[in-house]
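Support case: adenosine-5'-diphosphate complex. Customer-provided input:
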Amino acid sequence: MKKILFAASEGVPFIKTGGLADVVGSLPKCIDKQYFDVRVIMPKYACMKQEVKDKMEYITHFYMDYNWKDVYVGVLGANVDGIQYYFIDNEFYFNGFKPYGDNALFEIEKYAFFSKALLSALPLIDFRPDLIHCHDWQTGLVPVYLKERFQGSDFFRGIKSVITIHNLKFQGKWDPKTVQSITGLPEYYFTPDKLEAYDDANLLKGGIVFADAVTTVSDTYAEEIKTGFYGEGLDGLLRARSGDLRGIVNGIDYEDFNPETDPYIVKQYNAVNFRKEKVKNKRALQEQLGLTVDDKKMMIGIVSRLTDQKGFDLIAHMMDELCQDDIQLVVLGTGEEQYENMFRHFDWKYSDKVSANIYYSEELSHKIYASCDAFLMPSLFEPCGLSQLMALRYGTVPIVRETGGLKDTVEPYNQYESTGTGFSFTNYNAHEMLATIRYAEQIYYDKKREWNKIIDRAMAADFSWNVSARKYQEMYDWLIG
Ligand code: ADP
Ligand code: GLC
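Agent response - structure generated as follows:
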């Protein structure tokens, strides 16, 4: 039995701010249990819901030398859906109302602590992984610490590491002297061939340099990040490591996201009966949100972090014009204030057409995936994107920009060949986006049979973890030997 440890800063069902949590929560369940024992370790945040905290049990605690102090490290455990989870507990680092804070230096101190603590905890919980699968910059120091000190002892010798880049934009950077002092790593590590990049110490870079393999969450993003535009300053390094870099497209949990059994939605439906049943969800949502109740109105959904990454400047630019069309727009999201206020404004201005829901809600997100006719995601960059996969699963036609995982998972509609699962445009341009939305409107209103066939193909597409989990397994096998 090969042993794998996922190390991540968030994971469903314990804590979620975005797609990383969905991946960490769903991928381990889909790795073949006959050959792999996959466990997950993450911080225990004060802001986790009481119901998930209640599932945790104290395992052990110890004190660790960190940032010139002797620091408490608690270890808790929980077994959910057959997966063993571990949690690193420290009330100083993991307090607060949200998992991530705004103080960049404190975030580095916090996740460097997490990385060192999780390695230190392994001998005490008696789990020696053959491979540690790290996710994003927060765990970038795991491969570094592993090489720098832990692999000197018998317990750790030979443990492999992989890092998956879910978002290259976030790297965890601060001046090298400070990071060196906090982490206790020798000066030797703070050179441009190791942790240093552009005069900063860079935790993600450390992970990329020292991990045995690097993956990211779609083929197209794996190519894009080797270029200056998408490379966030690390494109040179990623080109240099291209032999060890591959894209494996994300899947979603086909049980949690299943229109046939979803307890959050008003009317369950499937690929056979959606023509009659899906619209009942739209009707209920129109009522709930105070929009004009009309089965025929094309409803476009957005569920997203409201950030530049997701293309909201294009939407902001076109909002007034878009609202002249015969559509409804339902938004669920939180993020940058300018976008939150922009949607609030249009909700006020076009109250029967636009519904802005500026908060986080699992339940409303499922209702939107199920109720809308189309789903808008014009991202500037998108490593993979899970929302469009959820939309496809619910027969809600994605309208996306052709970048990263959006390009790999949404096949553009071709009216001549009658193929495609959604609509897409190439350039990051507001008018191109609007033209594409209007093309979709035209098919929706004038060619309903064609529209329904797009839904047929969308719902038939398979973005469960089946194929991708096998690719991870092959990689684990190859690395562990
Ligand atoms: P990212 O990880 O970049 O935010 P993804 O598309 O990979 O983008 O994943 C986003 C996840 O977060 C999806 O599961 C989506 O449904 C969820 N999500 C985003 N915003 C909200 C919100 N306000 N309420 C509920 N779920 C949300
Ligand atoms: C990141 C990316 C998103 C991806 C998710 C899970 O948050 O922004 O595109 O789907 O990670 O890999």
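The chain has two domains: 2-251+466-480, 274-462.

Case will auto-close in a few days if no follow-up is received.
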